[in-house]
Each structure stands twice: as structure tokens, then as C-alpha cells.
């Protein structure tokens, strides 16, 4: 058991009782937004296809304050032609911030789609640049 969703959109499900993973996730997210957390330790319980899981696993290795392209992930998967599929999997990431899909940019360095909007993505990347040590 672990966190299964962190994002910008309400999911309309009631949280029943106290859950240690939820509480830990909330604490770690507060620390992240206060510039005091650079890696997450909360246990995740993410559902997705095998391909999505592989993309999200690679996303989780991208260090705080750094950005990479969809092509970089496709190459890490030994499938350089899978750039669009990587983009689609990135867009389906249910654990925003913790699985840092905001750290993926276009091959030419431009900010590309983000569930919370491009302005939120720009803010997150700037936040990480400001607090990167």
C-alpha cells in the first residue's frame, strides 16, 4: 500500500481514516514546497501499464533541479522511436511532483505539456533552480 494519486485535479474519493502513507506524503510535499526536500521517500502504489511503469521509474531517477527530454527517456528504454509513447505515459503520471514529470522538456529546451499547465511547470522548475544546492 502507498500513495496512488497526487495531482491538480480532484478525484472525488473520500479518504477514510488516517493513513500513514498519506500523512508522510503530505509532510514530504510540504517540505518540497518549502525548499527543504529534494527526494521523496513515501511508498507509492501506482497503477499503469508495464510501459507506463517503466517510464515513471525512469522519471523517478531524474535529480532535483535537472531537466531531460522525452527522447532521453526513450533512449533509456532502448527504444529511441518511442518518444510519443513516452510523452503519453508522462502525461498519465498519477503521482505529480513525487514522480517528477515536470522535469521533462522538449528536445529543443521548450516547456511542453503539463497537467497543471505550463505556468505551473515553469514555476516548479524555477522553484527547484532556486533551492538546488
The overall average pLDDT, rounded, is: 88
Radius of gyration: 15 Å
Question: Total domains, how many?
Answer: 1
Q: Residue ranges: pLDDT <50 for 5 or more in a row? A: none
Estimate the helix proportion, in percent.
40-55%
CATH-defined superfamily: Winged helix-like DNA-binding domain superfamily/Winged helix DNA-binding domain
Can you tell me the CATH class?
Mainly Alpha
Per DSSP E runs of 2 or more residues, the count of β-strands stands at 2
Terminal residue distance = 32 Å
Question: SSE order, as H and E?
Answer: HHEHHEH
Global shape: globular
Main beta-sheet annotation: 2 strands, parallel
Organism: Pseudoalteromonas xiamenensis
GO biological process, one term: DNA repair
GO molecular function, one term: methylated-DNA-[protein]-cysteine S-methyltransferase activity
EC number: 2.1.1.63
Overview of this protein structure:
Keywords: Cytoplasm, DNA damage, DNA repair, Methyltransferase, Plasmid, Transferase. GO terms for molecular function: methylated-DNA-[protein]-cysteine S-methyltransferase activity. The structure is a single chain. This protein has 133 residues and is mainly α. It has helices at residues 20-33, 50-59, 70-76, 83-91, 118-131, and strands spanning 68-69, 104-105. The chain has a two-stranded parallel ribbon. The model has no long low-confidence stretch (mean pLDDT 88).
Amino acid at each position: 500500500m502507498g500513495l496512488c494519486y497526487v495531482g491538480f485535479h480532484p478525484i472525488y474519493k473520500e479518504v477514510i481514516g488516517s493513513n500513514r502513507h498519506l500523512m508522510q506524503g503530505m509532510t514530504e510535499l510540504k517540505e518540497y514546497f518549502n525548499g527543504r526536500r529534494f527526494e521523496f521517500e513515501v511508498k507509492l502504489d501506482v497503477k499503469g501499464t508495464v510501459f507506463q511503469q517503466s517510464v515513471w521509474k525512469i522519471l523517478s531517477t531524474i535529480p532535483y533541479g535537472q531537466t531531460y527530454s522525452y527522447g532521453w527517456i526513450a533512449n533509456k528504454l532502448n527504444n529511441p522511436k518511442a518518444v510519443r509513447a513516452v510523452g503519453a505515459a508522462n502525461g498519465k503520471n498519477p503521482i505529480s511532483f513525487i514522480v517528477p514529470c515536470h522535469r521533462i522538456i522538449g528536445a529543443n529546451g521548450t516547456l511542453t505539456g503539463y497537467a497543471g499547465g505550463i505556468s505551473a511547470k515553469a514555476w516548479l522548475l524555477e522553484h527547484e533552480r532556486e533551492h538546488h544546492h
